User: Fold these one by one.
Assistant:
Number 1:
Amino acid sequence: MKPGYHYFEVGEQEIATGLYLTSVGWGGVRAGESYPAPGHPEDYDFSWSRGRVLTDTALVFIGTGRGEFETRLEKTDWLPGQAVLLPPGLWHRYRPWRDTGWTESWLTLSGELTGRLWQQWEGSLPIRPLAVPEPAAFGRDFERFIATVIRESGEKPGHARPQSLTWVAAGLDLAGRFIDAHLESTPLPVSDDGVDQALRFIRNHSHRPLTVQQMAAAVGMTRRTLERRFAQSVGRTPREELEWLRVQRARKLLVETRRPIKEIAFLCGFREPRGLIRACRRWLGAAPGRLRSAPAGGE
């Protein structure tokens, strides 16, 4: 497959759909060559020294070769057959090792719907390179998808207008295959009293307004029964569990993104920033601003 890419012009029609492609591309870097290659728009281009923050969601897959990937929280090797799904607003950087080079495929998506999806994924989907199921088949499908989009948009790399619903669906399918394999939750205690079911419900809905009565109803219990079983099995009340989960998610967003504290509060289920501030002080002993400015892990 010939290396190439497209960065799409996005207009009101695309924005109104709530989900649209913003770019696709495939390329290879030989051992010893500089990375990334020139020619990408400023919003997508980056260097190792300054890193990058995207406004889109990006899926990046490495087919061959090796490299390294870094966020403000961790640095890890990137091996062949691994992909990463990057949320908007996350500072990151990556590059191939000079003695191996690599081949990469990528797509980026944007729109209101991606923001809603990340409300569900954040805190449960690891943001680092992870193995994809059947990587050879995944890589072939990814390259076929990119080739189709480029061919139907025009033979030469450059800019083209979206948007075929077929393209968006195919891009979502690729992302979904990766997400389904790695969407995680904290291991739950094994029990037959409904507590594990309640914990799942809380963790899947912690970004939404949620009352203890709603938690109990979702698992077929009375509020009093739910609170008693939580006290016995978890050691926290359902309300405390909800707030603790929200704080953990907020801490991740504070450290890894540049989103305003007000936005993070709403994304994590707090009605107002003051609620997030109080919860961070209660559980972490520091206000959100201090957590954001705290030194992250080093090189």
Note: The first helix runs from residue 12 to 17.
Number 2:
Amino acid sequence: MTDDHTDAERDRATDGGHTRGGVPSASNGLLDRFSVAFGRRFLVGVLAVTLVFLIGPVLLTFVASFFQSWTGIAPSGSLTLIHWEQALGLTETVGASRGLGTWVVDVPATGLAVRLPASIAFSMLLALAGVGINLLVGIPIAYAVTRYDFYGRDLLNAVAVLPIVPGIILGIAFLRTYPNLPSAVALVIGYSLLKAPYMVLAVQASFESMELRQLEESARSLGASWPRTFLTVLVPNARRGIVSGSIVCWTLAAAEFNFSYIVYSRGPKPFSLFLFENISNNPFQRAAAAVSIYFLIVALVTALLRATGERGFSTGGVQ
């Protein structure tokens, strides 16, 4: 009787090839052995194929911008910079932005001075101004919905993080409501409104990972006022979310086409219209050069913002 009872318990404990408590036994199934042997390689392979599929066309477009022509599946002809010069408006071609002048942009910490067409430099400033407004508005909103429980909190959070109004609708609304508003001002305000959800979401994620109440109480116990606590303790600790939100907002604002196309009236063109002008009714190599310029500028701004986040920043207190 005792032996039968022991055998029955042993059978129940190892039922289904698993020991008691859900720990796999030595008799693993075929699927388990396959996942152990090839699981990591399979995941690496899927990741590699995905990266090639996404990055391959970008790299091919960048390379093609330096060739005279593209026939078949690969670029051909000798190397040339004429397509870049045409895209930048440095040569007399139809649709070039020649006559708008150039701006000299100093790259921080490198000592380099980059000469850019006025339209590109102007568009970079517009997008940065929109990011500035996102920072001034998005950080307090993200802090409020994370830290406090108040009436209308869920509604404010929903409005702040959902891109409710498309760019084309907001552009039409701006034209009807503010017909005399300068296009540069309208573009900055529009960029900030359209991209604000990305800033709020990024900063809110950083605040949610922090013990806000404990940090505030510690700072206040040391004699810091609430504004000083917020600016010198909470904001610097949320720098990763702030930098991530700034990168996303700037990248999307620089390429915002619908709103820019409707609101723009005069002066240097926004970057999205620069791309549209070079892509429409132009050879592929010139369009490739314009797209490559956009990617290079995005990479430069992203690197500068990431370097700022890694070094840390201060609003008057800790770093």
Note: The chain has two domains: 1-64, 82-311.
Number 3:
Amino acid sequence: MARGGRVGAARPPHGGAHRVRHPRPEGRAVAVPARGGRRPTAAAVALAATLAVAATLALVSSCAAAADVAADVNGTFASSKGPLPIGPVPEHAGLGADAAALVGERVVRIDVVSCVRRHHGTGFFVAPDLVLTAAHVVAGAADIEVLDSAGGHLGWTGAGSRPGLAPHDDLRVVAWDSARDLALLQVGYGVPTHFERADGEPGDVVAVAGYRFGKELAVRAARLEHRVSARSADIYREGETLRDVYLLAAEIGSGNSGGPLVDEAGRAVGVVVAVAGTRFAAAVAVSDTEVRQFLAEAADAIALGRYAADADTGRCLNQGGIRPR
């Protein structure tokens, strides 16, 4: 599937690190800093191996597109094949007791300060120390802290810009993609288990897990209404990209971004990235096809020695009138 879209920003926000664009046949890139061709360290090799495994956890089709959606994340669900209706939000997610308990262990809150503005997002473990979230959650971040559902510290990186906190660094941004709207964080304190991943299909009832409005973890029911190849701008409303996404009947809000869609077996099938238009009960999620490709590209870049510290996370979204979702 042909893709476009801008990855990273022209000016790196942290310490002058510069991006390396690692070309892929489909024109994508993972943002990682250049280090003069340095050979990967043992830790980087281990990380690349972990990512390679995570990228192949789900054996799914490359794209089950129903139609191209000609709208950005603030648009309505109109497509080249006509309107795509969204039904009512289901009452129950159908998670078993065991799956519901594991959601609390595997879904994390992400607190961010970017351009002196504080906001919240959600992430989830795809490996024992790797958290997947939405790229716009951490775009241009000066401080990022990852917390478990009880408020326990899992990782933080920043320059001590928050009152009472000294500079600290036990979190790294491994990869960041403004076109797919995905980011990968490595935290200092991981968990023994993580989400298995799978493919979802239209009609599936799933759970949306996240920290809506930065409050406690909540699990709400949702339905995968459509799976489409969506044409949209990147997180800065620039360029054009095609993504394999789900259109959801779901009630989400600020803070849900980056959270998983969890199926009845407790597997992650996608990542919440946006509220759709002005409809409160409709949303957009990136499919696991995009997640798998994103993780594979990150693994390739790291294995080639193009990773040492933090990936470039672009510029703040609260510049130029653009606000985090």
Note: Residues 32 and 307 are 6 Å apart (CA to CA).
